[in-house]
Amino acid sequence: MNNGPLVLVHGAFHGAWCWNEVIVELAALGRPAVAVDLPGHGLRAGRPAALLRRPFDPGAFASEVSPLAHVDIAGAAADLADTVRRVGRGAPATLVAHSIGGTVVTRLAQENPSLVARIVYVSGYMPASEVTALAYMKRPEFAESRIPALLSGDASVTGALRIDTRSDDEEVLRTLRETLYGDVPRPLADAAIALLGSDAPVGLAAQTTRLTAEAWGSVPRTYVRCTRDKCVPLGLQDLFITEADAAFPGNPTVVTSLPTAHSPFLSAPRLLAETIHTL
């Protein structure tokens, strides 16, 4: 494994907090790592006022414009690049990207390939050149995903993918647990749900990156398949790999698999850390 910095990037609605257990396990293996909050997430999150207003108004919640509507891939990738430069002090980093965080890391690697030693996508969006993450959500391979059942409103209007993280509806909470934390013990899953942001900037899913062989196509990449994922279905994960290898056959994806649902950083942090460490 590269001796430069190891930078962990979360997915939609999450933050640096989700990597805490993995960071501990990596440290035990002698591999220090840092986790970041992308713009609009974690300690940098924003939420619609309607989320906490009582009585709860579903219509207002679904239609309120997000305070994160301005966040896009370009800004998020530039922000992440600044962090990588600081922690790397000139050394290229290994970037580990979960879920929609893959779109940001992909843009960073295309624009600044010298900053990246390797990308590790963990059930991550690894979109083809000039294809949006949202476009993949219309593909047959996405049909088994449970995430659409959780989304509120029209993202093109609100500027965000939005979920009701403060719902008192047990069916909503059950779907959240099954979609994001299907193999995570319930007390831990409920604690994670309490930390989720309600809004994920739609720009991270609605904007594209043009990939070239000289930039992203030249960066070594690994894809960690999560075989029981109900958020990013296994068929979609395999599609990302197939498309990338067809576009850049001289730099094939290294593929490994974990027998987990969408969030192995919570359900199997030691296994995920060992996987990252031994690539």
Instruction: Bin the helical content.
Output: 25-40%
Mean pLDDT, all residues: 96
What topology, given as strand order, has the largest sheet? 2-1-3-4-7-8
Query: Would you identify the CATH H-level superfamily?
Result: Alpha/Beta hydrolase fold, catalytic domain
Q: Which percent band covers the strand fraction?
A: 5-15%
Task: Tell me the domain tally.
Answer: 1
Low-confidence stretches: none
CATH third-level topology? Rossmann fold
- The tally of beta strands, per DSSP, is 8
Task: Please write the CATH class name.
Answer: Alpha Beta
How far from one another are the termini?
6 Å
What does the main sheet amount to?
6 strands, parallel
Content-based structural category: alpha/beta
Q: What's the total helix number?
A: 12
Shape: globular
Query: Rg to the nearest angstrom?
Result: 18 Å
Short characterization:
The protein is an alpha/beta fold and 279 residues long. The protein contains 12 helices and 8 strands. The protein has a single domain (6-277), classed as Alpha/Beta hydrolase fold, catalytic domain (Rossmann fold, 3-Layer(aba) Sandwich), CATH 3.40.50.
Description:
The protein contains twelve helices and eight strands. The protein has 279 residues and is of the alpha/beta class. The protein has a single domain, classed as 3-Layer(aba) Sandwich (Rossmann fold), CATH 3.40.50.1820.
